[in-house]
Please model this.
Amino acid sequence: MKDVNFFKPYLGKQKEKINSQIYIYGAAAIVGIIILISLVSNTVRIYLLDRGITDYTNKLAASEIQTQLKEAQDVNKQIEILKKYDTSLTDVAVSVKNRDNVSEKLLKEISSTVPSQVSFKNLDIVDNTIAIKGTSTDRTAVAELKHNLSKLQVMKDVYVNSIDTNGAVEGSYSFDIKCVLKDVG
Model:
C-alpha cells in the first residue's frame, strides 16, 4: 500500500520560500559588499587627495616658491603693459603710414616751385595744411610762388595770407602762404 502524505504540498512551498529568501539575502549581501567596497575606495581616494592637497599647499607656501610666484606675476604685468604699448604703437604706425602726405616727393615739388628771389623762414605741415613763411625781394616773386604752388597736382587750394614789409629786412617783403593738400585717401 501506498502512503498518502497530506503535508507534501506544504513542504514544497516551504522549500521554495527558503530558496527565494536565499536569493534575496544573497542579492542584498552583494549590494552591501559593493557599497562597502565603494565606500572604502572613495574614502581612500579622498584621503590621498587631501594629503596631496596638503603637500602642494606646503610646497606653495615655501618662501622660494612665493618669490618665484611674485616674480612671475610681475613679469606677467609687464607683458600686459608691453602688449598695450605694442597695440598703441602699431595703431600709431598704421596711422602715420596711412597719412603719408609729407614725403620727399612733395618737398621736392614744393622746392621746384620756389623762385630765386624767395627764401623760406618756416615751413609747417599740419594735417593737410602747409603753412609757408618767408621773405622775398620782390612782391611778384611771391605771386609767382603762389601761382607755381597752385599748379602742383597735390594742391587743392593755395592762398596768400599776407605780404608785409614789417618784420623783414629793409627792401624785402615777408609773406605767409597757406596751402591745402588734396585728400589722397
User: Anything to note?
Assistant: The chain has four helices and four strands. The mean pLDDT is 84. Helices lie at 8-61, 63-98, 104-112, 139-151. The beta strands are 118-126, 129-136, 155-164, 173-181.
